[in-house]
Known about the structure:
- This protein is α+β, with helices and mostly antiparallel strands.
- The chain has a domain at 81-192.
- Helices cover 27% and strands 9% of the residues.
- The chain has helices at residues 11-33, 81-106, 146-149; strands at 117-118, 152-155, 160-165, 187-192.
- Strands 1-2-3-4 form a four-stranded antiparallel beta sheet.
- 24% of the residues are buried.
Amino acid sequence: MSAGPAVRVDLRAALPVVALAIVVLSIIIVELCGRDDVQGPTAQPTAGPTATVGPTFTPGPSPTPGGATETPTGEAPAGDPDQRDAVRAQDLVAIQQALEQFRSDEGEYPNTNGNIQTLCVFEDSDAGCALQDILSPLPQDPLGDPAMNGYFYASDGATYTLYATREGDQPAECSEHPDHLGRIDSLSCVRGP
Length: 193
C-alpha cells in the first residue's frame, strides 16, 4: 500500500488570515459589548477604590450663586443691565481662575477643538463641565436660561475664549461676533492666556 502525496502547509501564509480574523472578532466584541465595557490590552486592573486629593482653588471673586431665573412671562429679571454686566464680569474672572487651576493640574485647558460650546449646559459633551471639580457651582448668567443667555467657551487646549452677553456699555464689546452666537446682540469676551 502506498501513501498518498504529502500535503505541506506553510504557516507563514496563514498568519495574515488569523490576524485579520482576530481584528474582526475584536471589533464585533467591542460593538456588541460597548466601548466602555472593553478594556484594551494596556489597561491596568485596579486593586480597589483609591482616594484622590480634591482640587484646590485660590479664592477670587465669587460666582453668582445659581444665577437668576426668568419670570414666568419670559421677561428679563428686574435690575439694571449694567449691574448684570458687572456680575458677568465677576463670573468671567472666577471662570478664568478655574481655567488656570485646571491647566496647572492637567497641563492644558479643557479642549473644545476650537468650537464654541456652552460652558456647561450639556454635561456629556461640554468641555467646560470639567471645571466643576474646581469651581462649584459654575456661574450662571443673571438672565437665566444658560443655553440661550449663558457663558460660552472655546479652546484649543493651549488658549481659550469666554463669551458672555453684554447689555450695557461696560465691559467693551468683543472684537469678534461668532456666527454661532449671532442670536445675542452684543458680546463681551475674555481670552487667555
